[in-house]
Structure formats: structure tokens, C-alpha cells
Amino acid sequence: MTLQTDAAPLAPPVWHALESAHAARADALTSAHRARKARGEKHPVEDFLFTYYGYKPAVLRRWHPGIGVALADPDGVRAQWRHYRTDDGVSAVHAVALAESHGDLIARVGDLLTAVHSRRGMYGCFGLHEWAMVYRAPETRHEVPLRLGSAGTDAVVEASVLQCSHVDAVRFFTPAALPRNAHRPTREMQRDFDQPGCLHVNMDLYKWAIKLGPLVPGEVLLDAFELARDIRELDMRASPYDLGDWGYEPVRIETPDGKAAYVSAQRAFTARADEIRGALLAVHADYTAALTRSA
């Protein structure tokens, strides 16, 4: 049985060049983190993508052509890779093998992406989730001082309406902040709560790209990582922390101008995320079609 793909196989010089370019881009994106780690240093903003999500730079560096793209592979290089199949010197991602080992996960990711993609974004949270994580708390989550001090930070929360809908943000709220939130998102209800205006939902596209594994073209994975990196910066600039010593100007969401600036950036990130989410959904559709052809 021959592999069924959507186009002629990429010749070795072509896909080797794509692989090298991908590795170089990934190395550039992770170089600062890798250098800090070698020195035993921490960064309150940039380390998040590696510590919270837990994926090592090597994961970003590995290039996949994506589902439906065949590689001329006379030496059988990709035949040794998990979830690839090689027939007659042509290698490609093996959808059936992925379905056997990760089918339930891939289905859940596709369902969540579809649900979020169908919704309109909401833009009234103003990044207050980070404030709720230190509300009336004896200590902060980062070794960085609070811009307004503890009392000032608590006052901003008390003068605001918390509207966080993302379970992985709300689960870090302090006990005093939880009752102040308008929503009670849970893991089981994530499909119903996630929406495309949420910074954390859009950062999570990086996680979903990783979960979909070799189905995802390398450029889409790195685009998702870059989006998550840029969102993380806004997330922390709008937080209660004073990051001036780290070179970050605050987005003062406690003021009308700060709120407007936050929403403007939030909408721009939503537009970028919509493109990446659409690309991941196209990947999922191609995967489903490949399974249907193999049935």
C-alpha cells in the first residue's frame, strides 16, 4: 500500500533546507532562555513558556512538514521517527498510527479549537487575573515588587469586576479573589468557557500545536510560540508587578487609558490567534480526511 498525500514528495535538498531554516528560527527564539538557564538565572516574563507549559526548546526545534506533505526519503531518515511511515522511499506523517496512540487527545483538541473559533471575543477582563492571583495574599507569585504595593493592588481588585473565564488562570486566584469572579470555569467546562479574546486561550494555541504533534507544520508551531511569547509580555506588563528593572513599561489597567491600550493589544492578538487557530483546524481536518481514506 502506498502513502496517500496531497502533493508530490519534497526532494531531499528542499526539505533539508526547510528543516535547517526551522531549527535556526527555533534556536533564535530560545537562545536567551537557554543562555539564562546555563547561568542559573531566571526571568519573570520569558521563562513562563518553558516552565508553565513544560516543553523544552528541543521540542520547538524539531521540524515536521505536517499532515499530507510527503518527503522523498531514499535513506529512510524519517522512517525512524515515531508516527511516520515510509513506502517506496517516500515518508510522511502516519495519521492512523497517531490515531491509535493519541486519537482521543487529538479529538478533544479539535473540539476545543472548533468551539473557540465559532465565538466572538470578549474584552472586558482587562488582565485582572494576575491581580486576582495576589489579592490579599501574604506573598507574590514572582520575586518582583508590586507596582502599587499590596494595599494599592487590593484596592484595584475591589474597585473592579473580575470576569476571568479561563480555568488555568482562575485556579491560581487567591481564596479571597475567587468569590469576586463572575465565572466559575472548570476543566470539564473549558469548551464552554474558552473564548478568542482571552490572552491565555490564545497562548494555549502553542500547547495545542504541540499536542497535535507531527500533524502540525513547523512554521505553524513557531508562529504559535511567537504569539504566546508576545502575549505573555502584555500579560505581565498589565499585571500588578513593577517590571521596570527588566525593561518593561507597565500597561496601567487601573486607568482608562491603560484599559484602552490593553483592549487594543488584546484585539490585535485575537486576530493573530484566529489565523493560527484556523491553521490548526485545517490540520485537524486533513488528519480526519486521511483517517477516512484509510478506513
Description:
With 295 residues, the protein is mainly alpha-helical. It has a domain at 96-294. The chain has helices spanning 12-39, 48-51, 57-61, 95-117, 129-132, 149-158, 167-170, 190-193, 199-211, 218-237, 256-294, and strands spanning 71-72, 84-87, 90-93. Strands 1-3-2 form a three-stranded antiparallel beta sheet. Helix 1 (12-39) packs parallel to helix 10. The radius of gyration is 21 Å and the shape is elongated.
Quick structural overview:
With 295 residues, the chain is mainly α. 52% of the residues lie in helices and 3% in strands. The chain has a domain at 96-294.
Q: In terms of topology, how is this protein built?
A:
Elements: H1 12-39, H2 48-51, H3 57-61, E1 71-72, E2 84-87, E3 90-93, H4 95-117, H5 129-132, H6 149-158, H7 167-170, H8 190-193, H9 199-211, H10 218-237, H11 256-294
Antiparallel strand pairs: 1-3, 2-3
Helix pairs in contact: 1-10, 4-11, 9-10, 9-11, 10-11
Protein name: 3-methyladenine DNA glycosylase
